[in-house]
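ARCHIVE CARD
CATEGORY: sequence design from structure
SOURCE FIELD: tokenized fold
FIELD CONTENT:
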């Protein structure tokens, strides 16, 4: 385990055709080769393109093959619209590392206000779980899932919590409160990568277990550090039991 990791939240917009989104992500990966953890916004490759779910799912497979070939040392997380093995479609978080997929997670809490339940299948709560990469324990929540305290409990013990999101502008303040509170409550780093579309909140950030954060609504790349020493110090200083 490295004592300090470089982390990045990408605050991207969605573009058409889909390929422009993938090209933009690949350009960021090239520019951030020395960064250890990179999180892209929820469905940043296709947006919630409900009118063209078949095409979006096909493109998601191309994204997966491209990123598997490209990503080696980094940890890269995003969500994709994909075909569900039991039929229909789902929003699935995919985490890449060492030319493979190290974690998959279907979105469990669908956002009813956005009609997600009309078009997508929900995952189970059991899918929200810890996973480990190079000695670092990770957890992941997808956007709306930030609101559910029972999911926070499922991620207790995580060192880093990844949050790909497409969070709306009217609830911007909530996106700036909830992940900061999660970082303090779970004594973890929280990386939020939110969409920068005009009707979205931006507010992408990297929060520390002490409650500090790095945020910049004007930038597409928000960077910070994951200090494992600070994390251990916080957990020794304030014992949560």
């Amino acid at each position: 385990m490295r004592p300090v990791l470089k982390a990045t939240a990408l605050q991207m917009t969605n573009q058409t055709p889909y390929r422009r989104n993938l090209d933009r992500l690949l350009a960021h990966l090239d520019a951030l080769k020395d960064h250890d953890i990179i999180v892209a916004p929820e469905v940043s490759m296709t947006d919630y393109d409900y009118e063209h779910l078949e095409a979006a799912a096909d493109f998601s497979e191309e994204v997966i093959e491209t990123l598997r070939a490209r990503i080696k040392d980094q940890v890269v997380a995003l969500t994709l619209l994909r075909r569900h093995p039991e039929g229909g479609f789902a929003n699935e978080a995919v985490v890449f590392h060492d030319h493979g997929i190290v974690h998959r997670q279907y979105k469990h809490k669908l956002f009813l206000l956005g009609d997600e339940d009309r078009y997508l299948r929900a995952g189970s709560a059991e899918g929200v779980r810890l996973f480990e990469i190079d000695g670092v324990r990770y957890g992941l929540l997808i956007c709306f899932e930030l609101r559910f305290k029972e999911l926070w409990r499922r991620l207790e013990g995580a060192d880093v919590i990844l949050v790909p999101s497409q969070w709306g502008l009217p609830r911007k303040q909530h996106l700036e409160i909830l992940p900061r509170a999660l970082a303090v409550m779970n004594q973890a780093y929280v990386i939020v990568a939110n969409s920068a579309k005009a009707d979205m909140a931006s507010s992408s950030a990297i929060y520390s277990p002490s409650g500090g954060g790095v945020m910049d609504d004007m930038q597409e790349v928000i960077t910070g550090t994951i200090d494992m020493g600070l994390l251990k110090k916080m957990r020794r200083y304030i014992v949560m039991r």
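CARD ANNOTATION: The chain has a mean pLDDT of 96. Residues 4-237 form a domain with the Nitrilase/N-carbamoyl-D-aminoacid amidohydrolase fold (CATH 3.60.110.10).
SHELF: design records, drawer C
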